[in-house]
Amino acid sequence: MSRHPRDPGDPGVPSSPSQARCITLVTKILADGSPCPKCADVEARLEKSGQIQHIDRVVIADERDPRSEGMIIAAHHGVTRAPFFLVQEDGDTRVYTVYFKFVKSELGAITSPQEEARELLNDNPDLDFI
């Protein structure tokens, strides 16, 4: 699905200057070779909602290969979890590690506070409701 080749000099930046906005989804393959369950869930949500049409590139961060494109992009942007989204637009890069925040901010989707809180808690098991 990679429609826009990456500029090797700057991880995660589309090489086409005419591209107004480029959205990259970075998913992960775990050290045992299995796909990341959270990544699969987010990809399924994108497919089901039709929002996948807004994703320009899908890049794999393979834990078995620190030189994989996704691992390089994650390190470059200081991201330690997957999946995550990079949005490049007019020289600006925005990074989203929370699916609902991404679809709300970038795709104008309507999300509920409960969905956002559930995802936040699932991604941060050390947190708890007050």
Poorly predicted spans: 1-10, 13-18
> What's the number of extended β-strand segments?
4
Q: What is the 3D shape?
A: globular
Please tell me how large the radius of gyration is: 15 Å
Class based on secondary structure composition and strand pairing: alpha+beta
**What is the fold named in CATH at topology level?**
Glutaredoxin
Our count of domains comes out at 1
**What is the CATH C level class, in words?**
Alpha Beta
| Secondary-structure element order, N to C | EHEHEEHH
Main sheet: strand order: 2-1-3-4
In CATH, the homologous superfamily goes by the name: Glutaredoxin
> Terminal Cα separation, in Å?
42 Å
Q: Which percent range describes the beta-strand content? A: 15-25%
List keywords for this structure.
130 residues, 4 strands, Glutaredoxin, disordered N terminus, 32% helix, alpha+beta, single chain, four-stranded mixed β-sheet
